[in-house]
Amino acid sequence: MFGIGMPELIIILVIILIIFGAGKLPEIGAGMGKAIRNFKGATSEPEKKEPDKIEENKDS
Description:
60 residues, 2 helices
């Protein structure tokens, strides 16, 4: 995984904990989850809309 081992990952997590504090971590996690969900929705949206466009072209 990008050459990051367990010790490096633990150091990164400790630094994040020091910077943001334990109280902000759930908010950060929720925000990241929403961002990932929105990104997945945005990337799958064109696939959903294409059949509609094809049907519109057939009707014209």
